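[[Local backbone shapes]]
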Amino acid sequence: MKKILVTGASGLLGLNLSLLLIREYDVTGVIHQDELRGVPYPVIISDLSLRGEPEKIIDQTHPDAIIHTAAMADVDVCEDQPQRAAEVNSILPGTMARLAKSHSIPLMHISTDAVFDGSKGNYTESDAVNPLSVYARTKYQGEMNVISENSQAIIARVNFYGWSLRGDRSLAEFFAYQLLAGEVVNGFTDVYFCTLHVLQLIAILMEMLAKNLSGLYHTVSCQAISKFDFGCAVARQFGLEENLVKPISVQDAGLKAVRSPNLTLNTEKLAKALGYELPDQREGLKQFHKMYQQGFPLTLRKYLKE
């Protein structure tokens, strides 16, 4: 596995993934919305949802593996543009899976914990889904399309955080920037998740590819936390005031798309496949803060072509 094609290479996961993998691999990134400048790997600008585009790029790059992170991920925008969400989140993954199979290329498809309705938590890979939003429904259909086209593909359901190109793509960034500015920020006391730092996630994803895994895996932290408690943990890690994190219910937030209250996922299947327990919250938050201290967010901002 020498050449890796990363779709969605300007997104939080895709950008961090590409920048990390260039130390060992020949990476090509595919981007659509946010143009990049000066990144240390080749970038192709393309709308992969257009007919013929995925085929053209695969033929051009001849990858040894494809990591498909590209998605329409803004939950509220998906509510306003359901057809576009279906094209990107549902149809495109199936196309990528079919092409990967026809070219005998390993495929890693990135999905989401949001496929569940959050009524119980601790979901396993065999639990029935019940997606509540357009985003969640289209992402689940994307999973189904990948499975039907390519049984050897890896589908990773994730929830992650880290530093992004514009500084607005993860909950941890939101908490950090608001708290650093001394602003009060809302934290949902009744929404639980198992979020994972992006660099921890990347290491796990690459190990899954190296082990030639296939099928569906919950690829998140082994430790559940409420979004309120996560905000408090960010404050503590940065040495900021925890009392700036205001506890509220998600029902009082006035959000357009429905949010699932308990998206805690069981990671035993992946832990067994890898031979170790997935990370808890502590080290990821330390790494998140360390990257801030090292100026990584500013480094990423320089790659944004305005």
Observations:
- The mean pLDDT is 95.
- DSSP finds eleven helices and 13 strands in the chain.
- The radius of gyration is 18 Å.
